Amino acid sequence: MNAALFVDAQERHGIDLVGPTRGDRQWQAQAGVGFATRDFAIDFARRRATCPGGKDSHSWTPTLVHGTTPVIKIKFAVRDCRDCSLRPHCTRSKSARRAITIRPEAQHKALRVRREREKTSDFAAEYARRAGVEGTIAQGVRSARLRRTPYFGHAKTHLAHLMKAAAMNLVRLLRWLADEPKARTRNSSFAQLHSLAA
After folding, report:
1. Distance from C-alpha of 114 to C-alpha of 101, rounded to nearest angstrom
2. Number of CB atoms found within 10 A of residue 81's CB
3. The pTM is what?
4. Contacts of 9 (CB under 8 A, 6+ apart)
5. How far is the C-alpha of 152 from the C-alpha of 157, rounded, in Å?
6. Which residue(s) pair with 99 in the sheet?
7. What is the 3-state secondary structure (H, E, C) of the chain?
8. Mean of the pLDDT values across residues 127-151?
9. What is the largest CA-CA distance in the chain?
């Protein structure tokens, strides 16, 4: 999930979103060697980052990616990066300095907390429960047309949703009494093509 969604859901609605975060796509994080963005100490109050080698950043520039997503681009001085003994673990560039891109403070902190939370067994159990809820919603959309209603007004629409939920529960009960095996998770068309190509 997007870091902005975690912050927005908490601040505007008081909701703790449960879901996987977007992974760090930098080669340092992917390979598990070298210094990824998470290894830099970020001081938002001083608008400064400190690298694993102890050097402070040279510039701190708030900007927009694709004109909509706020980020902070942090660059280190060329003189600090050029002769650093940790350089092979930090950047593959022969001449350029190290630069990192982070989200604004609230999003950055929320992302770090969520990524740590993803490693716990409690998260796995809670996320499994969410998958069950999503399965129920998918069943309702496919079999009971939950996203559409022929009624006008909140009261009639709510009553229709309650009737559809009762009908879904009855169908589930009848299938359970008949010992009908649960359906297996379907693969998307793309996943099927991928398995054929492999």
Report:
1. 18
2. 23
3. 0.65
4. 15, 16, 17
5. 7
6. 75
7. CCHHHHHHHHHHHCCCCCCCCCCCCCHHHHHCCCCCHHHCEEECCCCEEECCCCCECCEEEEEEECCCEEEEEEECCHHHHHCCCCHHHHCCCCCCCCEEEECCHHHHHHHHHHHHHCCCHHHHHHHHHHHHHHHHHHHHHHHHCCCCCCCCCHHHHHHHHHHHHHHHHHHHHHHHHCCCCCCCCCCCHHHHHHHHHC
8. 82
9. 74
Q: Residue 40 in contact with residue 52, Cβ under 8 Å?
A: yes
- How does residue 150 score in pLDDT terms, banded at 50, 70 and 90? confident
Residue type, 54: G
| Two structure tokens written together for 62 | 């708030």
> Among candidates 63, 69, 66, 55, which has minimal Cα distance to 97?
55
Phi and psi at 135, nearest 5°, equal -65, -40
